[in-house]
């Protein structure tokens, strides 16, 4: 088997279950535990694996609202605005985008009003951010 396909199998298991043990990953990827350890260390060192997380169903999360916020940013302020957005505590994840907006952010707050305040007071006030379009997440389907 090629190293590339081994990496893909290991990553596939981790994407399905970030809490899987090395033994579970080895069994499901059809490799040994030392191979799993070696590849995971390599992938972490190379920045391919940047963290481990839990999937959250927003509907079942009491006392918290989650939105995906599409943002438009002035091109001359893009780098500065991106750096500052990374520092906003309510921004859980930040992505570049090739769709309708230059950036997409997963934003979390206690409720809809708090989330709106984050957008108005912490995101739209950043130099270079010209628009923010939230889509509130309702229910996780998969």
TrEMBL record:
An example Gene Ontology molecular-function term: sequence-specific DNA binding
Annotated Pfam families: AsnC_trans_reg, HTH_24
GO biological process per UniProt: response to amino acid
InterPro entries: ArsR-like_HTH, AsnC-type_HTH_dom, Dimeric_a/b-barrel, LrpA1, Tscrpt_reg_AsnC-like, Tscrpt_reg_AsnC/Lrp_C, WH-like_DNA-bd_sf, WH_DNA-bd_sf
Keyword check for Ribonucleoprotein: no
GO cellular component: cytosol
Source species, domain of life: Archaea
Keyword set includes Acetylation: no
Domain HTH asnC-type: 1-65
Keywords linked to the UniProt accession: DNA-binding, Transcription, Transcription regulation
Protein name from the UniProt record: Lrp/AsnC family transcriptional regulator
Lineage, opening ranks: Archaea, Methanobacteriati, Methanobacteriota, Stenosarchaea group, Halobacteria
